[in-house]
Amino acid sequence: PPKNPKKQWSLNDFEIGKPLGKGKFGRVYLAREVKSGFIVALKIIFKEQIEKYRLHHQLRREMEIQTSLRHPNVLRLYGWFHDEERIYLILEYAHGGELYRELRKTGRLSEKQAAIYIASLTQALAYCHEKHVIHRDIKPENLLLDHEGRLKIADFGWSVQSRSKRHTMCGTLDYLAPEMVENKAHDYAVDNWTLGILCYEFLYGVPPFEAERQTDTFRRIMKVDLSFPSTPDVSGEAKNLISQLLVKDSSKRLSLQKIMEHPWIIKNVT
Ligand SMILES: Nc1ncnc(NCCc2cnc(NC(=O)Nc3cccc(C(F)(F)F)c3)s2)c1Br
């Protein structure tokens, strides 16, 4: 018998609820699938924006990549549909919202919480990398929390299926690895660098190479101008992990496997 064709969704299948957030190119709403009562997040993207910025292939790639990923720390993309002027992404609803709101609220995280998030991110990235997917745009805005406070990587709008080295420039400045800043060929190790950036930001409340002007941030990234303030008092193990990730030579960055075996992770996560 023919495989039952993928359900064709339409807006009538959903009741739209409160806005959850504004992302690039469109808003996200809470929504309920009428028949099942299943709660989702519906991301609405305007076609003319996609046309204007010529992002069709990127959006298509995101669909392909995300519908094939299944991991507890990767936000699900259940499917999508479109009408005259909009494209709708049917996403897993992350009840805890955006991680960066928690970061802004509390200023910085405890070492235990930071280590738990870094371990979750590392496991999610190890899963993505074994599926040849580099996210390339890991930043607090793309990290969501579910109802149990479990971290979910979202928005694979910049990810790529990579077997060869990549060249496309993307991502926000603070989180960019040197090889991306230099627009050089880059590979999976860019996500390892970003783990170092995030670990620093979770513990100190700001990313390590933050500067007034973009040119200064670029310069600080290229120099790996890393320094640890004396307050808050962060453990030596945490600084050790960050220093092993924020390494200019991408081949010398601590591997995802080694991150999971690092004393700071072992001490705080098991
Ligand atoms: N509480 C919540 N629970 C669940 N989700 C929430 N927010 C949505 C998070 C996202 C997940 N995936 C996304 N994907 C894209 O946005 N993709 C996208 C969009 C435009 C253009 C492009 C492209 F054309 F550039 F590729 C790609 S946004 C929230 Br708040």
What is this entry, summarized?
This protein is an alpha+beta fold and 270 residues long.
- Strand order in the sheet with the most strands: 1-2-3-5-4
Low-confidence segments: none
Molecules bound to protein: the ligand Nc1ncnc(NCCc2cnc(NC(=O)Nc3cccc(C(F)(F)F)c3)s2)c1Br
Please outline the major beta sheet.
5 strands, antiparallel
Category by helix and strand content: alpha+beta
SSE sequence, one letter per element: EEEHHEEEHHEEEEHHHHHH
Averaged pLDDT: 89
Helix content: 25-40%
Rg for CA atoms:
19 Å
> Alpha-carbon distance between the termini?
48 Å
Total number of strands: 10
Beta-strand content estimate = 15-25%
- The DSSP helix count reads 10
Name the shape in a single word: globular
Q: What's the helix and strand layout?
A:
Blueprint: E1 14-23, E2 26-33, E3 39-46, H1 47-52, H2 56-68, E4 77-82, E5 86-91, E6 97-98, H3 99-106, H4 111-130, E7 133-134, E8 143-145, E9 151-153, E10 160-161, H5 178-181, H6 189-204, H7 214-223, H8 236-245, H9 256-260, H10 263-269
Antiparallel strand pairs: 1-2, 2-3, 3-5, 4-5, 6-8, 7-10, 8-9
Helix pairs in contact: 4-6, 4-10, 6-8
